[in-house]
Specification:
single chain; Rossmann fold; 7-stranded parallel β-sheet; two-stranded parallel ribbon
Amino acid sequence: MTGFWKNRRVFVTGATGMIGAWLVKDLLAQGAYVVTLVLDADPQSELYRSGDVSRISVVNGALEDFGTLERAINAHEADTVFHLGAQAIVGVAHRAPLPTFETNVRGTWNLLEACRLHRDLVERVVVASSDKAYGAQPRLPYTEDMPVAGMHPYEVSKSAADLIARTYYHTYGLPVAIARCGNVFGGGDLNWSRIVPGTIRAFLRGERPVVRSDGSYVRDYFYVKDASRAYLRLGERLGDPQVVGEAFNFSNESPMSVLDLVAVIQKLMDASHLEPDVRDVAEGEIHSQYLSATRAREQLGWAPEFDLEAGLRETIAWYRAFLGA
């Protein structure tokens, strides 16, 4: 709690998503006035289940609609924008790239253009990118000096959004910074195809969890509360000339394979008798991806508060309550 966000007027896209919902929760706790863009009201979203939606202003509409974004920023006099809205599922992007490009790419330039038009209001913009924006690189971990080089649809959408954000800083001086996180997990993620919620739900049901890959794929697993607070920290530091216009990786820097992650959840849930169902059918995914967070630690003074097991324990408790288990 820094006091930085008290009485600030903050516009959040993607607030019905997992990270967006926890970001809204943190902003409200720090006294911000929060406005969100909501495409579809989802009663299962943490934003609605928690009751936080009754404490914020909601603008209904799509990222693809420029007029809605421009009106939201102008009418609510937003001084800060967190852009988390996106089509965020790799498999969905692989099956249907066009709507993913429309949301993730057009949606980003629409939002940034609306911010540019209202530079008298908007003082800081944080754009959510992803480790997927880097694409396949010859060495790991990813560092911010590597090019963004996605090849598959979801990766490309994040690479493009990342570059567009930098364009608005370098060409128009818009105060933008970019956050690149690994695989974020936590309560509120209802995309059951993802490994953490899917595995926890399977164990709660007494079923074998499904692993879409061969289980050897390596990722960062980053708890949602750490992700939310990383976004806040980045926003707080956007007045620093070393921060504005830059990208920052956020990670607990403890990559592991999918099967190793499942084993940790098995241990925490006492479910070692339920072996994973390894199907090896994943398409359009890079085998190994993980991030260095050195720049965030050194330039932002940031560090994660949760290790993997601590984050998973809170996550498992959330799903037990959600599923009535």
